[in-house]
Amino acid sequence: MGPAVAGRRVPVVVPVLVLALGAAVRGGGGPGPVTCGSVVKLLNVRHNVRLHSHDVRYGSGSGQQSVTGVSAADDGNSYWRVRGRTAAVCERGTPVRCGQAIRLTHLGTGRNLHSHRFASPLSGNQEVSAFGEAGEGDYLDDWTVVCSGTYWSRDSEVRFQHASTDVFLSVTGEQYGRPIHGQKEVHGMAASSQNNYWKVMEGIFMQPSEVFKAEQYHAEL
Questions:
Q1: Which H helix or E strand runs over 4?
Q2: 143: which of 42, 85, 87, 177 lies 20 to 30 Å off by Cα?
Q3: CB under 8 Å to 79, separation ≥6 — which residues?
Q4: pTM above 0.90, yes or no
Q5: What's the CA gap between 122 and 133, in Å, rounded?
């Protein structure tokens, strides 16, 4: 079964997205840029868990939809769509630049990766939640991609820094009990460390735009 959405359950059938997205390729991390419109799973490199969400709310703090880390590679609730920052359009197939602010929208529930100045339930760091409806939330959904080079590469390890509060998306190993037994806490940390690094794994990747291909061609001349 898939995630709960507005009181009902719907299946997550990821292969169908290939038809909906158009010019896309399915696969894992590899050469090439991450592009807007792509649907990806993100692995925390230090703790080997994928960024995950589901229609389960925090019992403390904001009470918003919880965000966790899961070890299972095949969980359909770990897909996130790469989008432009709040109130901005990032055309499908546009490569994401290092230093660019983006939103990550949870595919199953339509809520955006979000943070704010609430304490996380286990570690007391800054809470990370999923917020909004149908992909629209607020400016606290924006995260800056911190990487080296010009573009966010599918085979590189990157950090996500919250654009409003400057914390880094992190996992430090705290583990939940029921009702999400075994899942790891995801939170924001002020300090940069090995707990902050993420890598693209499975996903459906929009092919780079013609503008990017032209830039690469001229760079090679």
A1: strand 4-5
A2: 177
A3: 12, 14, 39, 40, 41, 106, 107, 108, 203
A4: no
A5: 26
